[in-house]
Every structure is written in structure tokens, then in C-alpha cells.
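Can't attach files on this board, so I'm pasting raw text. These are the components:
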Amino acid sequence: MLWAPTGPAARRPLVLLGHGGSQHKTHPGIVDLASRFVGNHGFAAAAIDGPIHGARRAGALSGPAMQAEFLAMWKEDPRIDAMVADWQAAIAALLDLDAFDASAIGWYGISMGTAYGLPLAAADARINVALLGMWGADFANSERLAHDAPRVRCPVLFQQKWNDQLFTREGQFDLFDRLGSEEKWLKVYPGPHAPVAGEQLRDIEDFLARRLRSIAATSRVTV
Amino acid sequence: MLWAPTGPAARRPLVLLGHGGSQHKTHPGIVDLASRFVGNHGFAAAAIDGPIHGARRAGALSGPAMQAEFLAMWKEDPRIDAMVADWQAAIAALLDLDAFDASAIGWYGISMGTAYGLPLAAADARINVALLGMWGADFANSERLAHDAPRVRCPVLFQQKWNDQLFTREGQFDLFDRLGSEEKWLKVYPGPHAPVAGEQLRDIEDFLARRLRSIAATSRVTV
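---
Top answer:
C-alpha cells for the assembled complex are below.
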């Protein structure tokens, strides 16, 4: 899925949206974020389905049943390399459109969006800024995230829920601590794992928009 | 010290500025914040000296020597009740001027500004929103802060430095955890205890300005 403003072509900042477990590329929360980046900031946004989610499965499944199926899959085989490769193919296809500022690519992805987004940001320096969080280094099959975190070098805002029932406080602090980024911030919000709303939602839009605008302004000056 | 916009009288939001150890009520960092709230937002701001700081002492002393003198004083007698009483007298005197929105009073104070500001916010419900942080429940003579924290009920943004050399990560998490506020957020910034700059400084202005504007708008509607 690709969302972009209508009107004259321009090299716009691009936000990649990694949805959470049980969601999919056109989940209302993803469409809401895409609309904010396009409508409020003139950016483009793109999303692909996570493994066994959305159009990657035969029948539709959502909510707790889909989340349980994802967690069972994750614990058997997290499929990180395949998902990183899919995102890298998506980035290449998007940049081939010649419509985006290749120096202003942001990642949004918390929870499952971090499980795949952190290894992607570690592997692909085209990601210039990342909104991560709500996943811990001590979670099942997360050694790969702990290992990849020091290779993430772009600015990161890491979001954490203070009473997350899925991920421990310590595991999230640990994952944040391991990030190699010189500029990194951790923000804790009250409440359980879901929902993402209020100040947290505001920060997602505000952080990525401010950072991408600033990068885009710099790249226009120096190119 | 009182800073306020020139021009017609209005019931403005008021930000109380609690300076850090070794600083004083007209320290450049305090004047900078006051200027932001007055100049960028049309609020008023006020500051008084902390114990043994500024005009409360005979000779001027600043930097590490003043900080060491404060920490020695704190470990002998933290003087919390006296400082809370002074701030409450200051608030009463300020409200007597009939120039501020008494329902939109914010507190700024990190480090020593939290050592006194947290007990003040716990004791005085006139404080509607607070920016706290950079102090821990496990620091010397901080049982009083741990005890008072659950009585703080206003929205709080708690700031913490990831490599603070004075306060432990765990002690700061613990103090944040104890806050009684339904709306509370913790944000971690890279670096040591000082300086306060960049994203942290931006967040201080942004958080207090947004919250006070929102409270002031509501109080205008309902009064």
C-alpha cells in the first residue's frame, strides 16, 4: 500500500509503516497514521503485510486469535530474514518510482513492527529515523534483536507501556540500552500493551514528522 | 522573580520555575525558560531561590563548589518543609496579584527542582501539571520524596538521563513508578546529568505549554 498527496510530483519524505501483530497493511491504525503523514505533513507512506498477516493468508483473522497465531509462529520461527528482505524489496521498488527523498525515509513500527523493524533498520542504512518500542530483549526468540540493536545508528524514539502485560520493563530497557544510535530517547506511557492512543499517538506523528522535515530541509540545502 | 508579557492584563497561565542545585532564580537556564514561556506562549513565570542558593547566601558561589555545598546540606538536613512553605507563600502572593489563571499553574523543576517540587506538588493541588525528573527514590535523604510521590495527582512528565552519574536508573524508575498521577510519562535522554539541552529543553517547553494551554482553554469554557 502506498499513500501520497495528490498534486505536483515532489521528492517527499517517506514513512514505512510496520503494523503490529494481529493487524495488517490497511488496519485502521495504519491508515490513520498514513493519513496523518500525508494530510498533515505532505509526506508519503507505505505498508506491507507482516508474515501470515493480511493478504499473506487465505482467510481473514483478527484480534486475539490472530495475535495468538502470530505469537505461536514467532516462537517456532520468527522469519526475520524473510521479512527484512521483503521490506528491502519494497524500499527498492518505492525508490524506483523516483518520487521520494531517499535521504528522508522513516520507520514506524512498535510491537511486531519493532520485531521486524529493528533488524531492518540495523541492516539498511536507508532508514534515517525510527520509531520503535513495545518489544523486549528478554522475549522469546529475541536474541536476534538484542544482537542487531547496536547496528541501529539512526535517531530512535523507543516507546514503552508502563504496565505492558506482554513485555517486561527490564527487557525493554535492555533493548533500548543496546541501540547503537547516538540520538535515542525512551518514552514511557501509562497503561497496558494496547491501545496506542493519546500522547503516544501524538508523539509518533510529531517525532517522525519533525525529524523527517529536518532531514529533508538539510538534504535540499546540501544537494 | 516574576516574568510576564507587557500589554493588557489577562489571567495568564503561570509557570513556577524551580532551579537546579548550584543555580539560582536568575540563572541563565531559568531566564531562558521564563523567556520562552512569556515570549512564545504569553504565559507568566516566577522563580525563587532554593535553600542556601542565590540571594539566600552572603557571597556568590556557583558551579561544582556550590553543588557540593548543596549536596552536603541536603545530606545533613534537606529542608523540604521550609522550601515547600516558601513556595506556597510565593504562590499565595502571586495569586493575590489577580493576574493569573489560578487553574493553570505549572511546575518546572528537575534535579533539585524535583527534590522540592515533588513534595510541593504533593502538598498543593494548585499545581495542575508538573515537569519533574533527574532525582531518584534511592538517593540520600529521599524517603520523603518516595513517601510524597503517590500524593502527586496532576499530569507529570518525568525526565531522566540514561547515563546520569548522580542518580541511578532504578531509583528514578522507582520514583516515577510511585507517582499517583493517572497521566504520567517518563522520557529518557542520552547523556550525563548535565547539560539540559536539545530535545530535553524542547520537551520542557512543549509539554508545559501544551498542557497549560489546554487547561486554560477548558477553564475559560467552564467558568
